[in-house]
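Severity: low
Component: inverse-folding endpoint
Summary: output formatting inconsistent between runs
Steps to reproduce: submit the following structure tokens with default settings.
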């Protein structure tokens, strides 16, 4: 609040004494300072909002018998997209659940490097799944699969082996993540039911029931 009081005081001063160069410089500085303060406030308030409403995890469910993939997406996984700047900090954010066809999904590896004060570079890798329109290479959607500080295709190769019924290539090691803070994961009943069916006929019955 003090920043805004300072700004309006300077604005009143320049209106009262418009001939002084020092006051003109002061009001320009105050305006720029207030603008930067507002931008940083919105940015950090947005990140705080996203963190408060973030789920415990963003799981991906695979049904290889129907060839469907179900994702539990959240905006924190897509901070590099325009969503960070188009969703205001005061809006309650919620996870988005989506369904895709496995045959339309391809993986893309991206990396980012940044210098460190001690010298050298630190690099991070992200594998994103690109969802193409059926029968084309045109991107319809995308979601984050994994992010790591080392180059690894393990998760993507595991999913490929699982969806191809190559169980001999699978590592069945599991990790408990119940102690992670965040909102409880709640799948929509429709997606939860679809992800559990064992045949395409059962899947089609659910579709017909919803219509």
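Observed output (run 2 of 3):
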């Amino acid at each position: 609040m003090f920043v805004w009081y300072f700004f309006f005081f300077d604005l009143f001063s320049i209106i009262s004494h418009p001939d002084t160069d020092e006051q003109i410089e002061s009001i320009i500085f105050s305006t720029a300072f207030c603008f930067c303060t507002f931008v940083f406030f919105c940015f950090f308030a947005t990140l705080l909002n996203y963190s408060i409403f973030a789920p415990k995890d963003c799981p991906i469910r695979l049904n290889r018998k129907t060839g469907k993939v179900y994702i539990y997406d959240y905006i924190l996984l897509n901070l590099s997209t325009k969503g960070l700047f188009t969703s205001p900090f005061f809006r309650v954010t919620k996870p988005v659940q989506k369904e895709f066809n496995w045959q339309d999904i391809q993986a893309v590896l991206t990396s980012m490097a940044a210098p460190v004060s001690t010298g050298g570079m630190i690099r991070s890798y992200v594998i994103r799944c690109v969802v193409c329109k059926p029968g084309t290479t045109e991107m319809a959607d995308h979601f984050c699969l994994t992010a790591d500080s080392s180059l690894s295709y393990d998760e993507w190769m595991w999913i490929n082996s699982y969806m191809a019924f190559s169980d001999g290539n699978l590592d069945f090691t599991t990790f408990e993540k119940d102690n992670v803070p965040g909102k409880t994961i709640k799948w929509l009943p429709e997606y939860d039911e679809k992800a559990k069916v064992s045949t395409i006929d059962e899947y089609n019955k659910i579709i017909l029931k919803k219509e």
